[in-house]
Structures are given as C-alpha cells and as structure tokens.
C-alpha cells in the first residue's frame, strides 16, 4: 500500500480528535465528534474544514485569459478579484473537473481544482497551453487551505483579517498573515456563507489554532458531504465524470457557447441538439432509510436509474442525487432499492437546501 | 439493564443477554462509538428464523451502513420498536434501551460459544 499523503494540518486534525481516513490518497478527518453536530455547527454558527488537499494551478502570461476561456466552458471573468465557477471538459464535452478560476490580474489567474484531479488537470492545462503565450504552475504542494463556513464565518474571519469583511461573493483578495502572503476567497461547498483561506503550509496550522480559539468547530469530510449534497453541489468523480456533460449533470448554466470557442464546444452543441437520455435529479425518501451511491431507482419494478450520491440529511432525512431517465418528471413517485428493500421516494428539484449565499 | 459483564459477545461486536431460552441482542459500546450518529435501524420481521452469523439487521449512520449478524440461531420473537422513532438510542444506551431484537434460541449452546466481556475486550486491543 502506498503511503497516504498528509496535509500540513494533519497533526492538528488528529489533535482535535479527527477520525482519519483515506480520501483519494490523502489522510483526512471524516469526522471529529459527530457528523450531525458538525453539520449543525455549519448551518447555525461556524465550522472549519481542512481543504489543504485541494489543488491550486497558477496560469500566468499574456494569453492567460484567452487560454482559460479555451479550457473552460463558462465565461471566465477577467476583472481582477473576480472568480468564476466552471467545468473543464474533454473534446467530447464531458467533465474532467469542476473548478473556480480567480482573476488576480488580467494576466494571472489562480485556478482551484479538486484534489483527485490535480495531476490530470495540470497535465491537461500544460498540453493545451502549447499554442498560448502562457505558463502553468502547479502550486498545490505550496498551499494549506481552510474552509471557514457558516452564518458566523464572515464576522469570525474579520477578527483575524478585518479587510475581508468587504469581500464580495466569489471574489478573491490577497492577504498577509503571520508574515506570509496568502489568499482569501468568499466561496465554499456548504450552501452557507463563508470563506476559504490559503496560506503557505508553514503558516496554516497557526491559523487553525487561532480559529479554534475563536470557538470555530472543526468539521470533517462526513459533514462536508451532507452539507454539499443538501446545497446541490456536484461531487466530481461521483455525480460528474468523463462520461457526463454539464447538461446531464444539471449544470447547463456553466456552458456558454456564445462566448467563443472552447474545448468540447462542438461535441456539446451536437449532443444537446440530439438530446440526453438521462439527467441528474434529486430524490427524497418518503419512508425512513438512508439512500447511498449505487442504489438503483425503479418505477413499477422497471429500473430507471441509479444514485451517484446519497446520505442522511439532518434537515431532509434520506436524500440523494442520481442519473434518471430524462422522461421521468419532478414529482414522480419512484422506489430506491436499499439493501434489497424498495423504499418509496419522490423525484425532486435540487438544491434540497436553499442556498443562503 | 443488559450489563456488559453479564453479556456474551461475538467478534463482530454484537452482544447477547439470555433470559430463559430467549437471547436479547444489541451492539457493543465500542461498535456504537465506531458507527456513531445512528440515524436508522432496518430491523427484521418478527417470525424470521436466523442462523448464527447471518445478517439480520442493518444499522445506518450518516456515513455508512453496518450489517449486524445474529450471535445465536433461532426465531426472531421481538424487535425494538422504540428505534423507529429514536434510532440514536443505540448510541446513547447500547446495553439498555438501544437493544435491537430478541431471538428464541434453537441451539442454546450457541450462547456458550460467544466471548465473555473480558475476552471481547481483548479482541479490541489487537
């Protein structure tokens, strides 16, 4: 077995009682005391997550923006401090990764990508950058990162970094903290307001400890998964992958064919014209039970799809998302097979939780 | 109620407490702590017969599903109805209100083959 990679916060997480697990080759906390308590902290107060495993790609040069427009399907903003959520697609228009591209200057962007996709994204960017005047650097090993999330997140971070109080949603600002340069972005993966703070590995634990002193609850991947599923965010690798287009993944809004050419555009346009046989939909159980990834979905004993994510939500009980035949409408009665038992459920629109941001 | 010292344990973390020819079955304190945040218990139907080691119940936490194996053979004569409304009872009182089911034993010697509390604790230290 290969040794698991550790973030700069690994020891701090263990010290805080983190139950450490293998997450895509990283040793990360799945929970501290209780997923339910951590979920409640983020929905009602403030919690923090070690997200140092996430990747940072820096794209710099005269063609930085045209290059990012080419490798992303969304229309990337080139206004300094603005960030854009987007998908990175294959030539077939299917999803390699989802990412946020932040404009630092019109010629320098920071792209935050999923941990499991860093190497593939970096190689893809390098390959595609050949005809652009641009350099791509993988700074993923440089940065530690904490996601501070919840209704009290902004006022909490303002006690350490007063200048972040004015930061607009999806924007980035450069900071100096504990003698090091870093970034704060007003983003997250929970459906609550909050920020994500990047500092070099050597300084990130100091920030963790300061936040602990301010009463922020450490939260693990377990709570993070419940929060993001309630908020309707995709989990790349589960709800989206290289067999799915953004349209099927309920993310048609990130595709901007009018902006110009981009990788995957021609295939996407053709596929959209032809129509899709399945689409990502939400399901909500009508009876007790916990739906999980892989559970099959039935209508009158006929298989109509399967779940790509599922969980117990403290707010909505058994919920999930899955690829279901496109002719099945919202409101349809279905059954989800859990441990051989068919549990009545309803097809619903996502998000389950109305995003407060 | 079903004190650890008076229960016998399976290596798979179930406990059994004998009342006459009926074994009350639950999961150990160690198991409930490992599973944590129990949100649903999928109990079997009363009247079903089970063999030692057979999956007879599924405990769902937020993050995972855990199969529970019958520690003795016999007929399921009762299930803990209170868990439908309050599954977290298994977390709070694994050896009392959080019992799972009762099995009328067809082979009472099954019970003797289980570990006593000291023996079970020893398996956790490995």
List the helices and strands and how they pair.
The complex is a heterodimer of chains A (357) and B (126).
Chain A: E1 5-6, H1 10-15, E2 19-23, E3 26-31, H2 35-44, E4 47-50, E5 55-60, H3 64-71, E6 83-89, E7 95-105, E8 108-113, H4 118-128, E9 135-138, E10 143-149, H5 153-158, E11 172-177, E12 180-185, E13 194-200, H6 201-213, E14 217-218, H7 221-230, H8 265-274, E15 278-285, E16 296-299, E17 302-313, E18 317-325, E19 333-338, E20 341-348
Parallel strand pairs in A: 1-3, 4-14
Antiparallel strand pairs in A: 2-3, 4-10, 5-8, 5-9, 6-7, 7-8, 10-13, 11-12, 12-13, 15-18, 15-20, 16-17, 16-19, 17-18, 19-20
Helix pairs in contact in A: 2-7
Chain B: E1 8-9, E2 14-19, E3 22-27, H1 29-35, E4 38-42, E5 49-50, E6 55-61, E7 65-69, E8 74-79, H2 82-85, H3 89-92, E9 101-105, H4 109-112, H5 117-124
Antiparallel strand pairs in B: 1-2, 2-3, 3-9, 4-6, 5-8, 6-7, 8-9
**Which percent bin holds the helix content of chain A?**
10-25%
Q: What does the overall shape of chain A look like?
A: globular
**The CATH architecture of chain B:** Beta Barrel
Give the N-to-C terminal Cα separation of chain A: 41 Å
How can the largest sheet of chain B be summarized?
A: 6 strands, antiparallel
| SSE pattern of chain B, N- to C-terminal | EEEHEEEEEHHEHH
* CATH class descriptor of chain B: Mainly Beta
Question: How do the strands of the widest beta sheet of chain B line up side by side?
Answer: 1-2-3-9-8-5
Provide the domain count of chain A: 3
Order of helices and strands of chain A: EHEEHEEHEEEHEEHEEEHEHHEEEEEE
Rounded average pLDDT of chain B: 96
For the record, give the distance between the C-alpha atoms at the N and C termini of chain B, rounded to a whole number: 28 Å
Q: Please, how many helices of chain B?
A: 5
Strand % of chain B is 25-35%
Strand content of chain A: 35-45%
């Amino acid at each position: 077995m290969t040794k698991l990679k550790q973030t700069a916060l690994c020891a701090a997480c263990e010290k805080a009682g983190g139950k450490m697990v293998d997450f895509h080759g990283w040793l990360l906390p799945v929970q501290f005391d209780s997923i339910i308590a951590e979920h409640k902290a983020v929905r009602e107060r403030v919690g923090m997550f070690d997200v140092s495993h996430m990747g940072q790609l820096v794209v710099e040069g005269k063609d930085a923006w045209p290059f990012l427009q080419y490798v992303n399907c969304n229309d990337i903003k080139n206004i300094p401090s603005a960030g854009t959520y987007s998908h990175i697609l294959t030539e077939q228009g299917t999803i390699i990764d989802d990412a946020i591209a932040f404009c630092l200057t019109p010629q320098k962007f920071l792209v935050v990508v999923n941990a499991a996709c860093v190497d593939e994204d970096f190689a893809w960017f390098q390959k595609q950058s050949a005809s652009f005047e641009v350099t791509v650097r993988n700074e993923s090993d440089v940065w530690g990162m904490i996601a501070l999330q919840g209704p009290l997140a902004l006022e909490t971070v303002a006690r350490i970094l007063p200048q972040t109080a004015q930061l607009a949603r999806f924007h980035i600002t450069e900071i100096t903290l504990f003698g090091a340069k870093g970034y704060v972005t007003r983003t997250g993966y929970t459906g609550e307001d909050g920020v994500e703070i990047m500092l070099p590995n050597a300084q990130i634990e100091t920030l963790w400890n300061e936040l602990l002193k301010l009463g922020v609850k450490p939260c693990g991947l377990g709570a993070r998964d419940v929060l993001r599923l309630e908020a309707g965010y995709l989990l790349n690798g589960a709800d989206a992958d290289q067999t799915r287009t953004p349209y099927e993944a309920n993310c048609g809004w990130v595709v901007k064919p009018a902006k110009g050419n981009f990788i995957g555009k021609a295939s996407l346009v053709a596929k959209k014209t032809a129509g899709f046989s399945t689409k990502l939909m939400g399901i909500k159980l009508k009876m007790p039970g916990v739906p999980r990834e892989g559970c099959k979905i039935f209508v009158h004993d006929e298989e109509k799809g399967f779940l790509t994510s599922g969980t117990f939500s403290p707010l909505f009980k058994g919920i999930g998302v899955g690829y279901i035949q496109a002719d099945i409408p919202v409101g349809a009665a279905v059954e989800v097979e859990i441990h051989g038992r068919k549990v009545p459920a309803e097809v619903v629109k996502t998000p389950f939780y109305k995003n407060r941001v | 109620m079903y004190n650890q010292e008076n229960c016998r344990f399976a290596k798979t973390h179930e406990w059994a407490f004998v009342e006459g020819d009926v074994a009350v079955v639950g999961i150990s304190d160690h198991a409930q702590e490992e599973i944590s945040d129990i949100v649903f218990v999928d109990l079997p139907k009363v009247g079903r017969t089970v063999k030692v080691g057979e999956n007879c119940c599924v405990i769902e936490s937020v993050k995972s599903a855990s199969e529970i194996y019958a520690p003795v053979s016999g007929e399921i004569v009762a299930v803990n109805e209170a868990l439908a409304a309050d599954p977290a009872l298994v977390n709070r009182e694994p050896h009392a209100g959080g019992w799972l089911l009762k099995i009328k034993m067809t082979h009472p010697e099954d019970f003797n083959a289980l570990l006593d509390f000291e023996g079970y604790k020893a398996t956790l230290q490995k």
